[in-house]
Amino acid sequence: MTTAEALEGLTDPGKFEIMALRALRDLHSDCKTLVHLGVNVGGKTVRGPVDAFTLVPGSLPPKYIYAAFTTTGQRKLPRKWLHDPTSQRAGPSKSEAGDLIKAGYEAARLRIEVPDSEFVVYLCTNRRLDKELMDRAYAEARVRSIDLVFLESSQLEGYL
């Protein structure tokens, strides 16, 4: 079994979140102080608008970092990250907003208090990504004035 296959076979969301958060802290200096909100002390996932959050210390203008982690299969990633239940295209669905959309809601809320804030969202998956999904996500992030960074399988192989 290859490392990529082992990563895709990782189905415990709590274990994946802990590993991916470790990688984010190691790979991206702005992520050093990320607070992991998505896993309880027992290692089980906790529902919330984002899985990890921080204000980068000393950043001017203030820079907020969000991270969302998922072991969702590749076919369902677009919905997991990009579903907007308020969109005209979404239809009558009452399902939960995608991770990037939820982070966008959080950013909009903070912009009311601190209008010059910057926002970065890290979308983290144990899957490989395709360019089409990345392009769609980057476009959605631009609309919401959010910087977007992916953390995916090929970047995580050394952390398994």
Structural notes for this entry:
Strands 1-2-3-4-5 form a 5-stranded mixed beta sheet, sandwiched between helices. With 160 residues, it is of the alpha/beta class. It is globular, with a radius of gyration of 15 Å. It is built from 6 helices and 5 strands, in the order ααβββααβαβα. Helix 5 links the parallel strand 4 and strand 5. The chain starts with a helix and ends with a helix.
The helix-and-strand class reads alpha/beta
Shape: globular
Q: How far apart lie the N and C ends? A: 13 Å
Order of SSEs: HHEEEHHEHEH
Percent of residues in helical segments?
25-40%
Strand arrangement, largest sheet? 1-2-3-4-5
Largest sheet: 5 strands, mixed
What's the alpha carbon Rg, rounded to whole Å? 15 Å
Round the mean pLDDT to the nearest integer and report it. 91
Unreliable stretches (pLDDT < 50, length at least 5) are: none
Helical region count? Answer: 6
Number of strands: 5
Binned strand content: 15-25%
